[in-house]
Write a structure and sequence with these properties.
Length: 145
């Protein structure tokens, strides 16, 4: 019985912090810093040939305006989720020239994704400092929380 009482006292003392060495307070965390904008890719896909264009002087398109699509009410009520993948052609002015779905989820989600992507704006791809048309693959996910 006496051993049980000693064990209980030792466990209680450890739980209350007895016999612990004082610890130094944690070092203050550095202030948050802003992250630089993402670097555009060093390649693009030629929309006419499908070939990957890369090398010195090549910069891929970089999105500067990229709103998300609203979740269609019909897909929301049916609890449909997934990702729509699209081929997007960006013209020399950074506007979306065409969009085609390459991986479909359901027609209403596909249509919402395509409509949103058509409003996107880009810094166009360039080769040797001159803007060029480019193809990219964009995905838009629709997920329930």
């Amino acid at each position: 019985m006496r051993q049980i009482a000693l064990i209980v006292m030792a466990v209680t003392a450890a739980a209350c912090g007895a016999h612990q060495k004082p610890t130094a307070s944690p070092a203050p965390k550095p202030a948050a810093t802003a992250t630089p904008p993402p670097t555009p890719p060093a390649f693009y896909y030629d929309p006419d040939t499908g070939a990957t264009v890369s090398g010195p002087g090549v910069v891929g398109p970089r999105a500067v305006y990229q709103p998300r699509a609203p979740y269609p009410a019909s897909a929301l009520s049916d609890k449909i989720t997934g990702e729509v993948a699209m081929n997007v052609i960006v013209d020399v002015n950074g506007r979306v020239a065409s969009v085609s779905v390459v991986k479909s989820v359901r027609r209403d989600l596909d249509d919402a994704a395509v409509a949103a992507v058509k409003t996107w704006r880009f810094d166009p791809a360039s080769k040797d400092g001159h803007p060029v048309r480019a193809r990219l693959v964009a995905t838009m996910g629709f997920y329930l929380k």
